[in-house]
Amino acid sequence: MFKYTNSNKRYHTLDYYYKNKYNSKVFKVTLDLGLSCPNIDGTKGYGGCIYCKSGSKSILNKETKPLKEQFEEVKNILHKKWKKAKYIAYFQNNSNTYGDLDYLKNSFEEVLTYNNVVGINIATRADCISDECLNYLTDLNKRTDLIIELGLQTIHDKTAKMINRGHSLEEFETMYKKLKNNNIKVVVHIINGLPFETKEMMLDTVKYLNKLKIDGIKIHMLHILKDTVLEKMYEKEKFRVLTKKEYIDIVCDQLENLNEEVVVHRITGDPIKDDLIEPKWLIKKFTVLNDIDKELKRRNAYQGFNLSILNKSRSLMETNLKNNDIVIDATTGNGKDSCFLLDIVKNGYLFGFDIQKDAIDNTDTLLSEKYTNYKLYNESHESIDKILKNYTGKISLIVFNLGYLPKGDKDVTTKSNTTIKAIKNGFKLLNKKGHIVITIYPGHPEGLKESKLIKKTFDNENYIYNEYHNTDNKTAPYVVDIKKIK
User: What is the DSSP string of 11-35?
Assistant: First the structure.
C-alpha cells in the first residue's frame, strides 16, 4: 500500500512533502526577474514554444517592480488563505538562468535575506545553464533548499521540433545529469495532450523520467491559448484535444508508473479563462483534481502501483474481502501473503498450505507474533479440498503464489499438473463471491508451463478470467484473477 498514508491523496503531493520536511505550511511566492528565453529573443527562435503566450505571467503581472515589493504583495495575498507559513521564492517566468550571472546572483542572494524563506525554486531550460552558472548553483544548493525546474514537456524529439522547444532530449539529459552530479534537486515539467501524441507516448515520457530518478514532476494539460502559434495550428489542423476523462485516465496511469518518492508538484493546469480556447474543462481545476482522486480510488491504485506486480495481486486480494471472511493461502512461502490477508480478515480465519516444511515454519514464526486465527498445513496445495471439505461453499478467496520458495531451493517448484488440479478443486470450496488470485512466474521452464496451461484451462466461457501485466517483458511475473461462472 502507498506509504504516504497520512495524506488524503494517493500520490506524493508537494504539500505533504513540505509539511513533513518543515513541519509547517509552505507556499511559493512567485517572482519575475524580467528575463527572456533563447526561444523568444531570437537566439534559437522567436515567439517561444508554440503554446507560449510571450512567456508565462506572474501572479501580479507587474514585471518591473523590485523583488522585495513583488515578494511582499504576493505573500500578503497568499496569507489571506494561510495565516502562518514559510516561503519558497519561486522564479517562474521564462528562463531564470538566462541572464547576466551577477544579476542572477544578486537576485537569488537577496531573497535569502527575507524572513522565513526556506528555499528557492528556479524555472529554466536545459540549454540555459552555463558552466559558471552551474558552479554558482552548486554553491547556492549548499546554503538553501534549491530546486531547478526544467521544461521537458516530452521525450519525443519529433514532437519537440513540432512545438519549437529548441533543444533535444540529449541536451536535456546532459544538463539533468550535471545538476544531479552536483546534488541539485530537479523537477521536470511535462505536457499531456501535445498534438498527435498517443497515450503510449505520454506514458513513455513518465517511464523515462522515472528511470532518471527525478526529484519532482509537474504534469500539465496542453492549453490552447489565444494569440499563440498553437491557436493558428489548431484552427488550421483541428488536431484532437484530450477529453477530461482521457486526461484523468492518462494521469492516473502515469502516477501508477511513477516512483513513490517523486514529489508531484502539479497535476493539472489553471489557465486564465479569458485566454483559453481549449480545453474548456480545464477551467474547473478542482473538479479535475477531485476526479483524479476518485479514479485512483476506483482502481484501488496509487503512485508507484504499477512498478510491482505484487501491488496488483494485493489489490485483487482485498477486493470485496470482509473482516469475517475465511481465506486460503495455498502456497504460503515465507508468509507475507498470509500476513496481509490476516490484517484484513481480523474476525475471520486463514488456512495456509505449503509442501516445504521450511515455508510453514517461516510462516508460523511470522504470524504467531500477531495472530491466532489461522492454521497451517505442511501439505501440497492439491490436497486443499480434501482437508477442508467441511468448508465447501464457505471460502471467499484462495491465493496461489507459484514458483519456488524465495531464497529457497529453486529446483523445488510448483508443477503445472498439480497446480491445475488444485485450482479446479479450489472452486468447490468458494462461496458465491469467491475468486482465486494467482501470481505466475513464466521466467523459468515450469512457470512457463503453468502460464500456458492456466490460460488454456480457465480462459473460456465457464470462467471470468482476467490477466494483469505491468510490463511488456514476457518473462516477468503477472497476476491472474479467476471466478467460476455458476
Answer: S-BHHHHHHHHHSS-EEEEEE----
The number of residues in the chain equals 486
For 312, 446, 458, the CA distances from 452, given in Å and listed in that order, are 20, 10, 10
Quick one: pLDDT at residue 394? 97
Low-confidence ranges of the chain (pLDDT < 70): 1-7, 54-64, 404-412
DSSP class of residue 160? H
Q: Give the three-class secondary structure for 350.
A: strand
Cβ count within 10 A of residue 3: 12
Q: Are 468 and 479 in contact (CB under 8 A)?
A: yes
Secondary structure element (H or E) that encloses residue 384, with its range: helix 384-387
| Predicted model pTM | 0.90
Helix-, strand-, coil-residue percentages of the chain, each rounded to 5: 40, 20, 40
What is the reported pLDDT for 4?
58
- Domains parsed from the chain with CATH numbers: 14-307 (3.20.20.70), 309-484 (3.40.50.150)
One-letter amino acid for residue 323 of the chain: N
